[in-house]
Write a structure and sequence with these properties.
43% of the residues lie in helices and 18% in strands. The chain is of the alpha/beta class. It folds into 2 domains: 3-192 and 383-397, 3-Layer(aba) Sandwich (Rossmann fold), CATH 3.40.50.2000; 203-382, Rossmann fold (3-Layer(aba) Sandwich).
């Protein structure tokens, strides 16, 4: 039987986006007959060191568990994964394939070392493009360090047997930098949502909407990680400007380094139209996503091609129009424009953002039509089975 290791910082039962994507992929590869072992961090004390979940063999290694809201502590957590995974993997049976992601940035190096020791094929899955993300966030500022990081990461990419990236912009950046080599090829496979788990649901029949007093209001919702690359200032300011319209409410669901910023904004301006809720369990996700009338996806200027928030697929799956606060040149804007399933606003353009929200609020038919187009495009392009089958085909060709 063909065997594959998937090595990732997080996996089931973690609830962040990458953990859910990797769990879906592992489950579907098992269904297609592959022997799948996942090596991941034991990110909570109650996680088992070893278990079998839906046919997936899961091996968890000890990692640091410092507070992730502190940036230094977060990276120490990430770095601790490297030695523990490497040592544990040396004593495991050789797989045919080793599949690793791009985040944290050392993961391609870990994958390469293990592929050399084990004689396995190396497949890199680029979810975030480094060192670009770190440079644009100001985490790396010394030019010589940036150039060195770029050269090292490029060499690692060139040593892989296959590169899979998640969007067209990222694909072109990788090509421009010479990541493709005679040893590999670069494939584009978008992230996804599960169309059987996420589907349209009337708000009036939605227990989550009822419990949180969202029925009868026009809800603009941001659901997911509030990370450093996500642009939230525009939406916060729009909420403040529209605070005299109680029929329009803004809902943030999730966590991350910018969550305190949202809470502080609400308290400082004494807003009654902006609410904050914690991450919802995956079992609740269909209810929480369906509690809104518009789903928001945002990204700061300059990050196009380096990341692609996967929350866009969940919004499309439940048939909601997308408010994309981003550059029109980025992948999110292209998806929205190509499928005519929402509105695009440049970060910082508060007036335009408020006007577009008001337009959809005042035009229920257009809002519903955009949502229908989002669901249709999702089923045709971004549904789970479509994407994971592409992964299976690509892996088998290596």
């Amino acid at each position: 039987m063909v065997s594959i290791w998937i090595i990732n910082q997080c996996f089931y039962p973690d609830i962040d986006a990458t953990a859910q994507i990797m769990t879906d992929l592992a489950e579907d590869l098992v269904k297609k007959g592959l022997d799948v072992t996942v090596i991941t961090g034991r990110n909570r004390r109650n996680f088992l060191i070893k278990e079998v979940y839906n046919g997936i063999k899961i091996v968890r290694v000890g990692v640091f568990r410092f507070d992730k809201k502190n940036l230094l502590y977060r990276y120490l957590n990430y770095l601790s994964l490297f030695p523990f995974v490497f040592i544990r993997a040396l004593f495991m049976r050789r797989p045919n394939y080793i599949f690793v992601g791009s985040s944290p940035p050392f993961m391609p190096l870990l994958g390469l070392l293990l592929s050399l020791f084990k004689g396995s094929k190396l497949i890199l899955n680029i979810q975030d493009l480094y060192p670009d993300v770190a440079v644009k966030l100001g985490l790396i500022k010394i030019p010589s360090v940036i150039r060195l990081a770029e050269r090292i990461i490029l060499k690692l990419y060139q040593k892989a047997d296959k590169i899979i990236c998640i969007g067209e912009n990222m694909y072109h950046l990788l090509l421009e930098r010479g990541a493709a080599s005679k040893n590999n090829g670069i494939e584009i496979i978008h992230n996804w949502a599960d169309g059987k788990q996420l589907f349209p649901l009337d708000k009036e029949k939605n227990s989550f909407a009822k419990e949180n007093d969202l029925v009868g209001k026009f809800i603009v919702q941001y659901s997911g990680n509030l990370g450093m690359v996500h642009e939230i200032d525009t939406l916060l300011e729009v909420a403040r400007r529209l605070s005299d319209k109680p029929e329009i409410a803004f809902l943030f669901i999730g966590d991350g380094v910018q969550k305190n910023k949202v809470v502080d904004f609400v308290n400082r301006h004494k807003l009654k139209n902006l609410f904050v809720l914690p991450f919802q369990a995956r079992e609740q996700l269909n209810l929480s996503l369906n509690a809104c009338d518009i789903g928001v996806v945002s990204m700061k200027i300059g990050f196009q091609g380096t990341i692609l928030p996967s929350k866009v697929y969940g919004i499309m799956a439940v048939g909601k129009p997308i408010l994309a606060i981003c550059s029109s040149a980025c992948e999110i804007g292209r998806i929205v424009a190509e499928n005519n399933c929402g509105e695009i606003v440049r970060p910082g353009d508060v007036n335009s953002c408020a006007q577009k929200i008001l337009k959809l609020y005042q035009n229920e038919g257009e809002c519903r039509l955009m949502g229908d187009r989002a669901r249709k495009a999702f089923l045709e392009k971004y549904e789970r089975q479509i994407a994971t089958h592409k992964y299976f085909q690509t892996i088998c060709k290596v």
